[in-house]
Design goal:
Layout (H helix, E strand, L loop, with lengths): L1 H5 L29 H8 L15 H6 L1 H18 L10 E6 L10 E6 L2 H20 L16 H10 L1
Antiparallel strand pairs: 1-2
Helix pairs in contact: 2-4, 2-5
Amino acid sequence: MAVKFASAFVPEPDNFIIDPIFSHTVDGLAMIDVNGELVLSYYSRVKKHSSTGRDGISSQLFHSCANALAEPLSIIFSYFFRTSSLPEDWLSAFVTPIFKKGDKLSADNFKQISKKSKVCKVLERIISDKSIEFALQNEIHPKEPHGFPSGRSTITNLLTCIND
């Protein structure tokens, strides 16, 4: 099973660069403004009954301490942005196989669940949302993807194809 799961992760070469698909450039997303209120709003999105993360913090404890931790974490997150660094523990995750259906002896019948630090997940979500917001505001987000961006689904993809 470990061989099957390891095959899903492919290391990128050191000189890996994605070819740009946009014809214009904009100033980069240099800094994300993080404050206690923003961090607290993302805390509320963490599922209260999800499993314990790699850091051993339960979701219930996470929610119980949200008000007290929001401001200190916003300072820590801002530091990470300024220094372009993260704790070493946040750069890896525990991968747990979860059985889907079928033969339990076949690795193909398991999905991979990555267990990461709850605090790291909050930071990842902030970065993801702010990056998408930046891309949309600066019109550097391609119009083709459907399914993941907010307001775009497989139905909007079909409607686009029909109307073209």
